[in-house]
Design a protein that fits this description.
Largest sheet: 2 strands, antiparallel
Radius of gyration: 16 Å
Order of helices and strands: HHHHHEEHHHHH
Number of strands: 2
Structural class: mainly alpha
Strand content: under 5%
Distance between the termini: 31 Å
Strand order of the largest sheet: 1-2
Length: 202
């Protein structure tokens, strides 16, 4: 997350608490995986808090592991588990496979090229190198399609709303905070994930 270590740890604590609340509210087993998202964001923001405090490469790699490897697979798969419409389930299966492929490619990037980071005022810059000869903005677009389009395929209530908010946050982050995109967008996405507590059926 951007701003400061205290902001990262505060967000981590709040998301952890909201995640626990969402688990308590769950009455259907198929919701557990989707409702784990705020908890995962809590762990990710805690890792970035450690990046702020200790300038830790390990913490940066953990943060990027969530951002680049966890989310492209977890998001479409968690929506696939929720889905009951056969046509939507088929498309979500395709996106889950594509997400898994994206996660593996990005994991390979992290493994082959040690990511770099730098604290720049109230933000953190992450530099991720790829073995694919593709411009960075195209890679970002491909990642966003895999991670966000499933929200518009899902027939579960409020998913389109969440997807719209995430796309808006993505475009805003990339347009205004291009250098800090990874950090800033993860911050916005973490905040948006708190909606899960509200939409979870009692």
């Amino acid at each position: 997350m951007c701003f400061s270590a205290s902001a990262s740890f505060t967000a981590s604590a709040l998301l952890g608490a909201l995640g626990i609340i969402s688990f308590i509210k769950v009455k259907q087993p198929r919701l557990y995986f989707f409702n784990s998202i705020p908890v995962l964001f809590s762990l990710q923001q805690a890792a970035e808090g450690c990046v702020w405090l200790y300038q830790s490469h390990l913490a940066a790699q953990i943060f990027l592991f969530f951002a680049l490897v966890i989310w492209p697979t977890v998001i479409p798969f968690s929506l696939l588990v929720l889905e009951r419409n056969k046509k939507a389930s088929l498309w979500l299966t395709y996106f889950t496979v594509a997400g898994l492929g994206t996660s593996l490619l990005l994991l390979l990037d992290i493994w082959l090229f040690r990511p770099e980071f730098m604290v720049d005022g109230c933000h953190i810059i992450y530099r991720i190198h790829s073995f694919l000869p593709i411009p960075a903005f195209i890679l970002v677009f491909m990642y966003c399609v895999v991670a966000l389009m499933p929200f518009f395929i899902s027939t579960y209530p409020y998913m389109e709303l969440i997807g719209t908010l995430l796309w808006a946050a993505c475009l805003l982050s990339y347009a205004i905070f291009t250098l800090y995109f990874t950090s800033v967008w993860c911050f916005f996405a973490a905040l948006i994930s708190s909606i899960i507590v509200i939409i979870t059926p009692k």
